[in-house]
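Researcher: Let's run the pair from yesterday's discussion. Sequence first, then tokens, for each.
Model: Starting with the first of the pair.
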Amino acid sequence: MHPVLVRWNTIGVRIHSARARYTSTAIRRAFNKKKFDRVAPGATTRSVPSCRAVRRQNTMPELRGTITLTAQEQELFTELLESSNQAGLATTTLRCAGGWVRDKLMGRESLDIDIALDNMMGKEFAERVNSYLESRGKETHNVAVIMSNPDQSKHLETARMKIRGLWIDLVNLRSEEYAHNSRIPTMTFGTPEQDAFRRDFTINSLFYNINTKEVEDYTGKGIEDMKLGVIRTPLPAKETFLDDPLRVLRAVRFASRFGFALDESLVEAASDDKVRDMLGH
């Protein structure tokens, strides 16, 4: 039987920031009034007669098959590859991650360029690239290091640098493990697949491989869910929300922003008493 889709109604909960406190009453009001489209677990574009049924009119452009770089982005990526090769980092693979990939596939421009590295920390990479650029007499900027801040759901050190007029954030690919009753994960170097599955939603788990110029979908659901217009978690939704309850609020924000449907398993997990209790603390 085909999944049943519920037409979209505007969400009534305003999301301010990850630092704001939200009561379980607010979450209950958001989810229990069923003010979202829902799509059953496992739905695909082949099993839904019309993807437009789960989107608000004119909310999102049609999904693009490839990523089209601006001239500035092309110059940036070329500079990064040439610099890393000359700096002795030819074995390092550079991948744009998360929101930039999602937005570019939607035809939206984005300056939020996060680059994940497969074999080193962002600070080391940035400093070695800067050293090479300086040796060539090219303009460089100081590398800023943004320390991890678990209270704001930022669990990993990030290096920030500016090249070709664009700021980029550099991190390493990672895997996460959460201790019991803790929102602070233990981080280790990970594979692209591990990094993709530890992300909040499938639409944010895509990579653009700068070396090969290809979009990579390690969860196997990111592209499909963008076509369908669904907010879904790469791992079981309850597990994802218990690891970090603030992801419930991010689900609301993305659903509202893009006019996407919420996967039924996600809605059920967000209504779980334990998840609500953790959001209330």
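Model: Moving on to the second of the pair.
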Amino acid sequence: LDLASSQTILESLKADNGTSYTLCAVGKLTDTEEGKAPYKYAEFATEEGVLPQNAKYSRNEAYRLITECLQLECGVNKALTFSEVTDEDEPEYKLVKGLREGGYVRMQEIDHMIRNGPEAYKKAIEEFDEKNPDYKSGVYTTEAWWEEPRFKEQLAQLRAEQGQTDKDNGVEEEVVKDERTLKIEEIATDWAKREYFKQNMDGTIDESMTEEEYTKSVWDRALFEGDLKYRQMNGETPDAEAELADFKVRQERKEQTMLERAKAELTEILEEENLGGKDLEETLSKIEPRSSSD
């Protein structure tokens, strides 16, 4: 359809004020699989919404789009033109792929694309780059003060002065990992990436948190999920619910132990600088470990 024809159709839809409408325009229908290619959309009856004569679109994907748009609130009184995206550098390509890899079902994916779309995606990237100008160089920030480079440097210096080594303090030497461990870590990394993307899109994590930071913060849970998935892939039928409950109990104990150790090390450093005292002890005693991830 040309621009004039599109505008005539849209005007006719809007003519009856008491009737809501949903319109999805696509190219020539082809018999290809649903969800095979990412997509982008534009407002129907605009210059950007006019499709070229050779435009093609999956028949099954078109059915999916109109089905979801008819039941989504964001599709009410919307007239949109959809087209396939094959350029991997296009933000729509990256966003759709990311939503799918992040575990979004089609309804959630389409709802997110229409409500937020690539503009919100671009804005999120710009804000991230602004808040983390050095992230490509491996420079990150964290709220876990015992993970801060400055604290670790002071702690290493204190240990060196006391003649302690990493081995003395429970730091394990690098070991050769077997095939099973490598596969579990691979699954765990994929799980953490999906969770990071999902929570980032839902706005349930701090905007300044990087994927590497998030992965590090949930790595124990990721390994648990990786081990569970690995065993399921190899024919086992573990009781996932019971194992998760047991994992959470063990994780709470571990976090409590790590917190107490960090408190002790911080106290030792501050006392070396004559900065300790009852106020410090009272403050540290009130610090509670973070709750385990759900």
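Researcher: Give me one sentence on the second I can quote.
Model: The longest helix spans residues 240-272.
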